[in-house]
Fold this protein.
Amino acid sequence: MRSVWSGNLAFGLVSIPVKLGAAVSSHKISFRQIHLADQGRVRYQKTCELDEEVLSASDIGRAYETPDQLVEITDADLKALPLPTAKTIEINGFLDRAAVDSLQLDTPYFLAPATPAADKPYVLMREALARSGKAAVGKFAMRNSEHLALVQARDDVLVLQTLRWPDELNSPAEAAPRSNVKITDNELRLADTLIEALGEADLGQYHDEYAQAVEALVSAKLEGVQPPTAGEEGGGGKVVDLMAALQASVDQARGGDNAQEATVHQLKPTGRKKAPAKKAATKKTTGTRDDTGSAGSGSAGSGTGSSKGSSTGSSGSSGSSTGSKKSAGKKAAAKKAPAKSATSAKKTASRRRTG
């Protein structure tokens, strides 16, 4: 392990010689700047702003800038600082690992014993931290600055993670939504269902697809073949039907037969649509017109539906119904006839008396 710092880990009166090594490595893709005309690499030279002299590393120092002047600070000045943490990681206390704000976590390092004599106290501290479930908090100086640090047991090693100072954390107030958003119970239930359907994440399955795509691009250019291209980008700035998107996401996560891509579309006004005009001209039977006219608006819809169903399903029933209505009409006419006869008889008798 390549060491980036060495010193002592002070645990009460116990001092453990340790060294720090990087716990992570980066595979970030980097590019070189070139002159497009001839592909020559672009170089930057460090020059003095006063005499424009090109400087080498031995000509360059450091200074602290004040409003009026620059104060030169040498390596010797920094080494002479009265800091107990210059070569020591001082453990000041302990806390539960879950109590650390994730926003404070910075760079992780492996702590390793620097000498064979440091093995036993190193293992002792590692086992004590593992049994307690706690992490040690301390400070140490590295690379011209003092760091807050968290030391915890991980498998067979001690891991030191630098922390950001509390006053370096920005307030999240500006990031929070400013509008008064209302979330319905149905939306929450669907979101809970989606979380359960997606299940536990396995961080080991993730990889840097951008780096792989750049490597494929470089390989294609070296081989003189057409590099792979991305598909069309979807348009932005559209309103999402949140419930539909959540339901589609749940179906997709479950892998069911109804799994579909979540649709994004402009939401339409929620007002009711006007009902289509009734086509009375298409109704041929007198009986149907009478039913529609005498019934309420709610019965009219069901009456029309049942009339269509009965006429389609059984023509005999429809004919019987029509025939019975005609018979009822004839009987009504027969009952009214005597009334007319009585009236005409009265008129004849009256004429005779007058005569």
Observations:
- Residues 262-267, 278-355 have pLDDT under 50 and may be disordered.
- The beta strands are 3-11, 14-22, 62-65, 70-73, 88-96, 105-113, 134-142, 145-154, 157-163.
- The domain at 3-25+81-168 is CATH 2.40.290.10 (Ku70; Chain: A; Domain 2).
- The radius of gyration is 45 Å.
